[in-house]
Write a sequence for this structure.
């Protein structure tokens, strides 16, 4: 899960996961989602579905 930050748009957020839009087609199956511009809130997540430029992710506990 090391790499460079990619911009995305948070479309939906729940306590279990999120729906995220990104232009990055080769988004990895697991990554860290930064929920603030300063990286103060981050969640490890894994992709559970993909549809075009939108992915559904589940937060890891």
């Amino acid at each position: 899960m090391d790499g460079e930050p990619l911009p995305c748009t948070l479309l939906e957020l729940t306590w279990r996961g999120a729906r995220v839009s990104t232009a990055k087609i080769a988004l990895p199956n697991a990554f860290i989602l930064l929920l603030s511009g300063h990286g103060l809130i981050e969640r490890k997540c894994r992709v559970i579905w993909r549809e075009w430029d939108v992915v559904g992710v589940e937060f890891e506990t």
